[in-house]
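Example 3.2
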Amino acid sequence: MEQTFPLLGVTGEYHRLTTALQNRQSRIILGPAGSGKSALIGAALAHLPAPAPCGIILIPYSSNLHHLLIDLARALLRTGHSAFRKLACSGNDIEKWLSQQTSRHLKGILWTSLEADPRVIVLDGVSGASFPTYRFLQRLYFVKGMALLASARDPMSLGSLGRLFWDPREAIHLHPLNHADANRLFDLAVVRFGLGHLDIEEFRGKVVEAARGNPGQLIEMCKLASDPIYVTGKHIKFAPLRIDVLMKFI
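Structure, written as tokens:
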């Protein structure tokens, strides 16, 4: 979701997530593409009281374990994780040092340093996690003071990480917006993308119906409507616009 839009319809989910982060409790956020998982995580991290953000490591999920280890090591070095810096002895050229490391060595020093000084690890967009990835994160998952926050489209998308997030009490499910919130978001998007001069009411009905409460799709349809290739006079050509949005969210 666009950062400029407020979170709608997820008050309970937001409070559950912020409470879990403050208490260092692991959670999984589930919802289809465009449901607002990344926006919810971003909002929760942005509003945590200091110094909580210092103990949170946000890294992109990678299905390649070695890439995941590199990203985690890089984040620890750049955020000044003293226990990891001491073990890594990376010097001033972090990237050169990272390029020389094996997965086995990285796993060892990551485990040791995070057991000594735990963090909250945030993995956004988990998809088809491998068994080796599960085994690496499993050890961290049970370290006192550690927490793992992940997001995925559905439980099946977790792959082997489903072995960690088996407890339904750890799941935060994102549901479609209700009709009122969908229309409110549409109005905000019209202003954000400057669509007021177009035939908005006809477009509104089609967008709200097609999005079915998915905020990401609703915003993307409004965003594309600001592109002249989808406009004739004051009429928005909905069919080609909708096809392009669906291709993006597959």
